[in-house]
Amino acid sequence: MGSSLGNSLISSLNSGLSSTYSYLASLYPKDGVTLNNITAARNDQTNYLTLNQSFASYLQNNFKTFDKDGDGKISADEMNKFSQTLTTAGVSKNELTQLASSGAYSQSTVAKILENFDDIDTNHDGRVTAGEIAAYSSGCAKQEKIDEYNYRKATSDMSVFYGSESDNDVSEYSILSYRYKNFNK
Question: For the chain, what are the domain ranges?
Answer without folding.
Answer: 5-153
